[in-house]
């Protein structure tokens, strides 16, 4: 069962990464994409849209938790709202766990997944 869930999450992450690369500067500025994927990341946090949290709550939470600009948070929030799901952060496991805890404390639907290298 866990293997199936892991495979599904990996597929979602790959799909989102491909969409992000294909869209380039579409929703998030290209500089943000370059910052997100430096090649040293091992984990990613994905936030899903819900009917509970307002757009304002999500924007404010992303600004507070990740210390990003309000404009970046708005872009990510709109992506979450319009597409139903978005990668909001990538990085090391130890940082990811704290970020995930902070997002869940507000009630955001989110999960952490490991990035699997292509040549693995």
How many discrete domains?
1
The backbone outline, from C-alpha atoms, is: globular
Please tell me how large the radius of gyration is. 14 Å
How does CATH name the architecture?
Answer: 2-Layer Sandwich
Q: Which residues sit in consecutive blocks of at least 5 with pLDDT less than 50?
A: 25-36
Estimate the mean pLDDT confidence.
80
Topology as H/E string? HHEHHEHE
* Distance N to C terminus: 22 Å
The CATH superfamily name is: Ribosomal protein L7/L12, C-terminal domain/Adaptor protein ClpS
CATH class: Alpha Beta
Largest sheet: 3 strands, antiparallel
Percentage of β-strand residues: 15-25%
**Helical fraction:** 55-70%
Strand numbers in spatial order across the main sheet: 2-1-3
The total count of helices amounts to 5
> Structural class, judged by helices and strands?
alpha+beta
| CATH fold-type name | Ribosomal Protein L30, Chain: A
Provide an overview of this structure.
By secondary structure, this protein is an alpha+beta fold. The chain has a single domain (2-114), classed as 2-Layer Sandwich (Ribosomal Protein L30, Chain: A). It has five helices and three strands. It has a three-stranded antiparallel beta sheet, sandwiched between helices. Helix 3 (55-66) packs across helix 4 (70-83) and helix 3 (55-66) runs antiparallel to helix 5. The longest helix is centred in the N-terminal third of the chain and has 22 residues, at 2-23.
């Amino acid at each position: 069962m866990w293997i199936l869930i892991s495979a599904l999450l990996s597929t979602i992450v790959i799909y989102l990464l491909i969409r992000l690369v294909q869209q380039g500067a579409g929703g998030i500025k290209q500089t943000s994409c370059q910052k997100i994927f430096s090649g040293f990341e091992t984990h990613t946090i994905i936030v899903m849209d819900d009917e509970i949290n307002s757009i304002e709550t999500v924007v404010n939470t992303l600004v507070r938790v990740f210390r990003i600009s309000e404009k970046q948070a708005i872009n990510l929030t709109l992506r979450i709202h319009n597409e139903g799901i978005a990668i909001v952060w990538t990085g090391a496991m130890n940082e990811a766990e704290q970020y995930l805890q902070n997002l869940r404390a507000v009630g955001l639907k989110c999960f952490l997944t490991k990035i699997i290298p292509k040549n693995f």
